[in-house]
Amino acid sequence: MSLLQTEKLAVSIDGRVLIQDLNWQVERGQFWCVLGKNGVGKSSLLYVLAGLMPRAGGSLLIAGASIDTTTPTLLAQRRGMMLQQHADNFAHSVLDTVLVGRMPYRAGSAWDTDEDVAAAQAALAMVGLPGKSHIDINHLSGGERQRVALASLLAQNPHLMLLDEPVAHQDVAQQLVVMQLLSDLKQDHALIASCHDINLAARFATHALILGEGRHWAGEVEEVMQPAILEQAFSCKFIRQEKMLIAV
Q1: What CATH superfamily is the domain 4-87+158-247?
Q2: How many CA atoms lie within 13 A of 60 on its CB side?
Q3: Which pLDDT tens digit goes with each residue over 190-222?
Q4: What is the dihedral of CA 78, 82, 88, 91, to 10 degrees?
C-alpha cells in the first residue's frame, strides 16, 4: 500500500493554477526530492500534502485512506511536515520545541512521559544537537533552529515525512549530514523534500518530482534528472560533467 497517493491533484494560489492532474504514488523506502524554479509550486504542494492548504481538485490518500475521512490524530501519526521558516515569539527550550512532535501520541494527556522525553533526546542526538536541550530556542543560529525542527519531526516519527527546504539554512558540511540522515530514514519511512540543489538531490534521493510551467515529470532519479528535462523545467541549459549536473 502506498503511503501517499494522489489522483488528478491540483494546487493553486489566488486562482492561479500551479500544479494540475498530478497522479503520484510514494512508497516506503523512497526519498523524493521536488525540484523546480521559484514560484512553481514546490512548497505549496507540500502544504497541500500536509493539510495546511486546501487542494484545488483531485484526491489525496495517506496510507490508503482519504485525508477527508481520517481523524487529525491518525493523520499526525501517519504524516508530518518540517517547515522552512519558524516564528519563535516566546522563550522556550529546545527540548520543549522538539517535544511538540510527540503530541499525536499523548492520548489526551498534557504531560510529557519519560518515553516522550527519551524520543526527543534521541532525535536531538540524530541531528547533532545532543547538548542543547535546555538552551532558549531564540539563542540558536538559523541552521541550528532548522535542525531542531527536523528533530521535532523525528520525534513525531510519522510514516510519511514532508520537508520544505531541509538544508536551506545549513552550511556545506551540514547539508551533507542532513541529506545522508534523510536518505537513511527511508528504510522505515517515505520522504518528500523540496530542494534547490539539483546535485544534492541527484546524490541522495531515490526519486524526483520535477515541476515545470504547466507540466511535471516524476520517476527514479536516473530516469528524470536528465539535462533535457531540467532544461524544460528551469529554462536554462544543463550539461553533465562526470557525476555533476551544471547549469550553463
Answers
A1: P-loop containing nucleotide triphosphate hydrolases (3.40.50.300)
A2: 21
A3: 999 999 999 999 999 999 999 998 899 999 999
A4: 60
